[in-house]
Amino acid sequence: MSQEVRNLEPKQLWNKFADLNAVPRPSKKEERVIAFMMDFGKKLGLETIKDEVGNVIIKKPASAGMENRKTIVMQSHLDMVHQKNNDTNFDFDTQGIEMYVDGDWVRAKGTTLGADNGLGVATIMAILESTDIKHPAIEALFTIDEETGMTGAMGLKGGLLNGEILLNLDTEEDDEIDIGCAGGVDVTATRQYNEEEVPADSVGYTITVKGLNGGHSGMDIDKGLGNANKIMNRLLFDGFENFGLQIVEINGGSLRNAIPRESVAKVIIAGIYDEAFVFDMQEIIKDIKAEFKTTEPKLTIEIVKSDLPSKVMDLGVQEGLLRAVYAAHNGVYRMSADMENLVETSNNIARIIVKDGEISIQNLTRSSVESSKFDLANALRSAFELFGCEVTFAGSYPGWTPNVKSEILDVLTSIYEKQNGSKPHVVACHAGLECGILGTNYPDMDMISFGPTIKGAHSPDERASIASAQKYWKFVMEILENIPMKN
Predict the structure, then answer these.
(1) Active-site residue flag, 462
(2) I need a surface site. Which of 166, 285, 373, 464 has the fewest CB within 10 A?
(3) Is residue 77 part of a domain?
(4) 375, 397, 419: which is the final residue of a domain?
(5) % of the chain exceeding 70 in pLDDT
(6) Are 82 and 222 members of one domain?
């Protein structure tokens, strides 16, 4: 199937993307893709550096006639989000992504595609390899671990780069030019609990929430999508309130930056409530599906009998857990007062694990305003501490403050309008781009972010538009030819 992708235009881009997608590259396990990029740069005879955290920098001199232009940094991240459908048999640690063409879209078979940010990486690779593309001096920066901590950008030291302009190729709408983004912080609540013997005459059930769209917990947080952890908590709360339901274990969500698509809970109820419990659950399921009929038409909630366990969660802790998750904010918290239709602050209740006496609730809180980010983080902390959790903040990274007077912004908007006959949308996004972090050590660098259209990032529905890739490639080529002169 990769050959079908390799035949697409522009071939330089899609061939490099296919090469990259053959290399397993999960976040925090980038050893193979780092080696791949180091080998790529060295084979081209270009200066190739791996810094102390694993970022790869490849430097290419300006093409003939472009020596008097400002040096640019072209930047994308090497890692990708790993998500797959439950019925897909795939090992991200050992297998390359299996791609296919579906009309105007390139997709993967039951997994994330890696277009985020593989198409950006492939773009830079194609330019580094080319012998006929006009360009100024380039410092190609390939960062690691963008998706689960941005530790690559955070670990990049000042002085390694000399570029005056940074082109970040990590946005997902081809008619948008990004000049700002949200920062984020991981909020994790944990506690232990005692387990009790299962009461006599109990009945075991497994409740499964699945079929949700999922998606990017920043870019898609305002779309009214269902959160499997929140939906599951509704079901468990009602079962506890009305029938004394007791929790055996919960496994909901996966990655912090992905809206959770699935959750599975094992529970017990008293046998005398068996029939009434099932009837009541079906009524609640009907209500939930009606609420989400527009945004989540494939939502499925199953309740099936299962074997009785030997232990269940302590009822006192269970009540605190259900009430805390109900109280914890999920979704948009505040819209920006300065930029129309921009989410300022949000939270994603990404992962809930309850098993063997341990509770873990993992959140990703985002905001373009640092004080608002910690306001929401403290609200979450309060909800979880009230039922005895230890709450930690980790991986905090800053947002990227928009610069509407950017010189490179003027270049890009002019080229876009000339090529497309319309103005681009100049926006800030609610995703966590690396520009804000990179700017801490390179404060004078003029930064911009753009990319081809990618839908469903961070989910197995991720897909990249072929027509958009062609539009984007043309855009990149003209940008390279029009980088401003050195001062």
Answers:
(1) no
(2) 285
(3) yes
(4) 397
(5) 100
(6) no
* Same structural domain, 301 and 160: no
Asked whether residue 206 is domain-assigned, the answer is yes
Q: Is the pLDDT of residue 198 over 80?
A: yes
Report the mean per-residue pLDDT for the chain: 95
Same domain, 439 and 417: yes
State how far Cα 16 lies from the chain centre: 22
The catalytic residue among 19, 30, 139, 146 is 146
pLDDT value of position 313: 97
Exactly one of 30, 79, 170, 174 is catalytic; which is it? 79
Asked if 153 and 438 touch (Cβ cutoff 8 Å), the reply is: yes
Q: Which structural domain, as residue segments, surrounds residue 93?
A: 2-181+399-481
Active site residue 79: yes
If you write DSSP's letter for every residue of 172-237 in order, what string do you get?
S-TTEEEEEE-EEEEEEEEEE--EEEPPTTEEEEEEEEE-----BTTTTTTS----HHHHHHHHHH
Q: Is the pLDDT of residue 2 over 80?
A: no
Task: Look up the pTM and report it.
Answer: 0.76
